Amino acid sequence: MMWGTTTIRQILVITDGQANVGSDPLEAASLAAANGITVNVVGIVSEGASGIDGGRQAHNIASAGGGMCRIVEMRELSGTVQMMTQKSMQMTIHQVVNRELKSIMGETEDSLPPMKRVQVAQMVDQIGEEATLQLVVAVDVSASMHSKLPRVREALRELEIGLEARSGTHEVAVIAFPGNNGQLASTVCEFSPSPDLTWLMNDLTAGGGTPTGPAIEAALRLHQERRRDLQAHIDQEEDGDASSYVV
Amino acid sequence: MGMQVLMSSKKTVPYGLTPGSVITGKWNGSSYCIIRLIGQGANGSVFLADSAGTQVALKVCSHAADLALEYKVLVTLAKERASSPGPRPIELDDWVSRSGTLFFYAMEYIQGEQMESFITRKGQVWIGAFLLQLLGDLSDLHASGHSFGDLKAENLLISKDRCRIRLVDFGGVSQFGKAIREYTEWYDRAFWNAGNRRADIAYDLFATAQLLIKLSCPSLSVSTFANLDARRRGEALFRQLSREAVLQPWRSVINKAWTGGYSSADQMRSDIARIQQEWLNKQRKSPKLSPTQQQLAMSVKKPRRKWDWTDWSILAASFLAAAVLVKLFGT
């Protein structure tokens, strides 16, 4: 297999509340997972509070989406977003490697002798460093999130720094939910290696609820469109598809 | 960083390992009896343990791959260098606990005091001396093609036996050119908008400058700057630093490390050695020197490094030259 062109697709949901509008976020997340897209969730809790109401739901969404969930305080947001994205990429690659190992040797990575495992870990690390990452960040912009948006922006900038340091390429798109003009979710930034985040400082009209489900669906659509576009591009170039291994 | 949040729920007894618990390796069969918890890092917990009468440190983690990579780094360093800057690795193994398989490695136990508390206790006069040692170690590490990455006061111990600085927690060690694996904001070049987060020599030297600032001005805190736009942070920090008289001698070093002006740890090392020497010369003239400071002044005066091949070759060359001269003019 050609690891150099491995593409990893992720959705990252940043929210501080319980989904209460539109379709079921768990269904949307498992649909994404079924399409090979990992869904990670960061839940923000206010300083000193015991936990957000959506804490359990956040965990459930992530587990349906095959990803990770962290409930953090505002000041930990930057580090968490960055760490989670990287860990989640590694996790995806480990899953693929384990599938391969299982089919070749009937064993998973963890059942290998430790020094053999070192070699697998090095390989996974290398793949993670070189893989292409396509990430859709879905940001909750409901009323309670407004004061937090500058920090979200900072966290995404931080993430960009982390991704910039890798040798592989990356593209990040951003979706806001609830969206503009009464939409449940809208794309505020198309796929770009360096997304323009100024919108996060603008006054966003606060919708009533938290349509997390529709936001994940929108993120999934964005991924599928992007994949189709890239596929079309590859098809134009005759034999390009042989070198593309999609996780 | 984020992972510490994860751990906080298990802070009391990580992995249910209390003093007296015994871990037996699945592959190699060695047994370790837990003495106490030493620390919790970004990726797992470190315990002091007894292994057949010898004290060792055990790093236990639920994530096999990270641990395996970290162990591999220690092995590589130990192989390449006679005296590795890190703890000597012993073995990597699995432990099948009641709650599932956990992963661990055993390494040399470095008994020592946290650098910050040592400096608080003994005085800031020691900072320069330890930075010289640290930069020597970083130079060795860099020679192997790695950045230390997560360089910070918490990852530095002053060993009890030799009063020498030791690096612990190699989870952040990253190959040059790759993304830094673990970092801490205060020490992170990218946080201060002073460069990227890719592993290179200058990344560690920036962190060393931040360490120097942190140890000299312990009251400064990263939270003061975290709320600022990244582009304003450096400016705000330097404004604060301009008021700190203790940093006066170090300003040129800090500026140079911040702007990526050093291309090797040895360059920064010789700058620090020079500043240290000037400072001590000044101190030696003043009669009010404490016995420790005098001792330190004397110790710095002596040549600090061992002779390497350059010294020997200079010596050999001068003998040769002398011999030639004798031959030419002797008779």
Plain-language structure description:
The complex is a heterodimer of chains A (247) and B (331). By secondary structure, chain A is α/β, with parallel strands linked by helices. Chain A has a single domain, classed as von Willebrand factor, type A domain (Rossmann fold, 3-Layer(aba) Sandwich), CATH 3.40.50. Chain A has helices at residues 25-34, 55-64, 77-105, 114-130, 149-164, 212-236; strands at residues 7-15, 37-45, 66-73, 132-140, 170-177, 186-192. Chain A has a six-stranded mixed beta sheet with strand order 3-2-1-4-5-6, sandwiched between helices. In chain A, helix 5 links the parallel strand 4 and strand 5 (170-177). In chain A, helix 3 crosses helix 4. The radius of gyration of chain A is 18 Å and the shape is globular. Chain A starts with 6 loop residues before the first strand and ends in an 11-residue tail after the last helix. The model of chain A is unreliable at 240-244 (pLDDT under 50). With 331 residues, chain B is an alpha+beta fold. Chain B has two domains: 16-108, 2-Layer Sandwich (Phosphorylase Kinase, domain 1); 112-285, Transferase(Phosphotransferase), domain 1 (Orthogonal Bundle), CATH 1.10.510. Helix content of chain B is 43%, strand content 19%. Chain B has helices at 2-8, 64-80, 115-122, 127-143, 201-216, 223-226, 230-241, 251-258, 265-285, 291-301, 309-329, and strands at residues 22-24, 31-41, 44-51, 54-61, 89-97, 100-108, 112-114, 146-147, 156-159, 165-167, 174-175. In chain B, a hairpin with a 2-residue loop joins strand 2 (31-41) and strand 3 (44-51). In chain B, helix 4 (127-143) runs antiparallel to helix 5 (201-216). Chain B starts with a helix and ends with a helix. The model of chain B is unreliable at 1-11 (pLDDT under 50). The interface between A and B is medium-sized, with 35 and 31 residues.
Summarize it:
With 247 residues, chain A is of the alpha/beta class. Chain A has helices at 25-34, 55-64, 77-105, 114-130, 149-164, 212-236, and strands at 7-15, 37-45, 66-73, 132-140, 170-177, 186-192.
